Amino acid sequence: MADRTPHGDFYGALGVPRTASTDEIQRAYRKLARQYHPDVNSDPGAEERFKEVGAAYQVLSDPDQRRRYDRFGADFRHVPDDVDERAHADGRTRYTSAGRGVGGFEDIEDLFSGLFRGRGGGASIPGADQQAELELTVEEAYRGGHKHLTLRGSGQRDYDVTIPPGVMDGQRIRLAGQGGTGSGNAAAGDLYLIVRVKPHRRYRLSGRDLHIDLPVSPWEAALGATVPVDTPGGEVKVRVAPGASSGRRLRLRGEGMPDPRGKPGDLYAEVRVMVPKRLRKRERELFEELAAVSEFDPRGT
Amino acid sequence: MAKYQLVRPVLLSVDEVAARSGLHPDLVRRFAAMSLVDSTTDVIGRLRFTPKAVPALARVQRLRTGLALNYAAIGLVLDLLDRIEVLEAQVRSHRRWT
């Protein structure tokens, strides 16, 4: 997101000190304009920042306007031209407490159209598309549903986004007309939400397939067992066949991420044989007995 | 044997693009000549554009007004932005977490 500066703080908008030279101001403006141009930076906050930077430069690059801004502050446009220093000093509180921001300026409604008029044009230009990331947990991506999304910008933008079940990492959700504002009566751009599926402690995604570890005890692995497994869709029972060593993968067909346009992915549960960290007396005896009796050699041929 | 549906691609004339993008037709022709917007010519040599030309022209105008770029520079910026988009998509598809 673009960093915020209070409206009407032109030096802050350009990130220069009040003592900055014309060259420094120009340099800061060029750099920021390149950085925040809505076609270069698709962040939803970039366009507003770009306009802010442009408005600040328009004032600070003009020695006369800059002098008046330095003297009267953000409301300098509402101070009559012929006001003298002493008279202003009397009226200072009145002007500064008015608290009118950049939005109060009559002649910078839109930087694009403003610049265009200056060039003798007069066209309306559609707004640029914007992009924002939408972070989802694996469960949210699996189930879909509604998600509330807040974008910071000029005033907060709130969206209730409907997420289709089985949305994939990197997939784009288009919100038509919610992008950059057009100038004149041109259409606004679109806002694209790029889905980011957050890494999960237990679930790993590979395409639509879900991979999980399936911890089992040595006797469950040796004798076979039916064990419960949590999946994003709820608990399922998995049958572990007798003699399943670590690494054995069990496939649960269709239990992966759903696909609105086809077959859902599969869920792979990988057996991991776990042993108790500390054995109680009886357990130790049984394992020792097993060790004495068994001819199993996992390293043998 | 597979059957394919014949679909006529939507192609716009200079005047249609001009009307949709609010530009003078001559300016649309000039942008096409400078290859700032993709175009083809039909059998009788008239310029034809895909519907994507309209947002592409808006981008040209925004870059021109917002950064005071000349048309050669805009052409370069457009190429670079397109390349970045491809690269970012590749990075996204390779970013697999475990």
UniProtKB/TrEMBL annotation, chain A:
One of its GO terms (cellular component) is cytoplasm. Residues 9-73 form the J domain. Pfam families: DnaJ (PF00226), DnaJ_C (PF01556). SUPFAM superfamilies: Chaperone J-domain, HSP40/DnaJ peptide-binding domain. InterPro entries: DnaJ_C (IPR002939), DnaJ_domain (IPR001623), DnaJ_domain_CS (IPR018253), HSP40/DnaJ_pept-bd (IPR008971), J_dom_sf (IPR036869). Gene3D superfamilies: DnaJ domain, Urease metallochaperone UreE, N-terminal domain. GO terms for biological process: protein refolding. One of its GO terms (molecular function) is DNA binding. Keywords: DNA-binding. PANTHER family: CHAPERONE PROTEIN DNAJ A6, CHLOROPLASTIC (PTHR43096:SF10), DNAJ HOMOLOG 1, MITOCHONDRIAL-RELATED (PTHR43096). This is Curved DNA-binding protein. It comes from Actinokineospora auranticolor.
From TrEMBL, chain B:
Pfam families: MerR_2. This is MerR-like DNA binding protein. Gene3D superfamilies: 1.10.1660.10. It comes from the Bacteria.
